[in-house]
């Protein structure tokens, strides 16, 4: 019963109406996390070393685009995903890294619901398409992304009548 009560309090598909915006961040970006992510997943010089970053077209120690995407995912999770009946995502429709994310930047932005519809192939599940816009502290767009998320619908109300009501 505790799980049902918890689920009832979470955002359901019906709460994701087109036009609804969810704030993202703020997320400070440190040199340490840029290097840590790069060592593990994208070990290019401009992501590992400040001097190499300055010598590159990025202008400083820069987060990998994949790191930027991972930070976007975390901001989405903190903003609404973890408080919703989400069932996963079928993919990413758009992912653009418009400007470098540098050590010392602070990221923030919005996820906006673009459209929402019930899924024909999965009763009780809807799919909402989002546009994510992430800016740095100077208001520069650093990441633009669009993707759809599958979200459970609220259960239909129980309309069973008790025997007393049918008499």
TrEMBL record:
Pfam families the record matches: MaoC_dehydratas (PF01575)
Highest taxon in the source lineage: Bacteria
InterPro entries found in the cross-reference section: HotDog_dom_sf, MaoC-like_dom, MCH/BMMD
Signal peptide: none
Domain MaoC-like span(s) in chain numbering: 25-120
Name this protein carries in UniProt: Probable enoyl-CoA hydratase protein
Lineage, opening ranks: Bacteria, Pseudomonadati, Pseudomonadota, Alphaproteobacteria, Hyphomicrobiales
